[in-house]
From TrEMBL:
It holds the Pfam family DUF4154. InterPro entries: YfiR/HmsC-like. This is YfiR family protein. It comes from the Bacteria.
Length: 181
């Protein structure tokens, strides 16, 4: 009995620490370490987002616009979920195509970024950027790489403007500045 109370106490104390550090992942050594870390993180973010349509979709379409700054090898997979199909598009092609469930925004002209963020508002489109670590330019999730680690932050205002539902635990993790280890 005393042992189970002690274990429960440790778990209760340990949970906040896990939340504080869960928005970061260590990047493995090697040429593909950063690509694997980005793909794990993007896949994890996608898995905690709920789209308003029925779950009958065959796959999620991730559209890469601009030049990704952290890695060019973006091919996330969602454990136990839908596959992700990756398309590279111009900013103009996104609004014509209209089947992008996820926009991955790399480095691009400011006018193109503003146009895409404006187009996404009110739509069921998840936006992730790797060219805005402080999440100031309208993307919902923003990746940042530093000192062998990959982290993310969230833009609650951008998430609140659309019909997507994001698990509150992920939102809490993304609000942390990533300084805890």
């Amino acid at each position: 009995m005393l042992g189970s109370l002690f274990l429960s106490g440790i778990l209760a104390v340990a949970q906040p620490v896990a939340v504080q550090t869960a928005n970061q992942t260590i990047v493995e050594d090697g040429a593909d370490g950063m690509a694997r870390a980005v793909n794990r993180m993007v896949g994890g973010i996608i898995s905690y987002v709920r789209w308003p349509e029925s779950p009958a979709a065959a796959a999620r379409n991730l559209c890469i616009v601009g030049s990704p700054t952290i890695t060019a090898s973006i091919a996330p997979s969602i454990a136990g979920g839908l596959p992700v199909t990756v398309h590279r598009l111009s900013a103009a092609a996104v609004s014509v195509r209209k089947d992008c469930d996820i926009l991955f925004l790399g480095r691009m002209a400011v006018a193109d970024r503003q146009r895409l963020i404006g187009w996404v508002r009110g739509r069921a489109v998840l936006t992730i950027s790797d060219d805005d670590p402080d999440c100031l330019h309208g993307a919902m999730f923003c990746l940042s790489a530093r000192a062998g680690r990959l982290g993310f932050s969230v833009n609650l205002d951008a998430i609140g403007r659309g019909p997507l539902r994001v698990d509150p635990r992920v939102l809490k993790m993304g609000q942390n500045d990533g300084s805890a280890t």
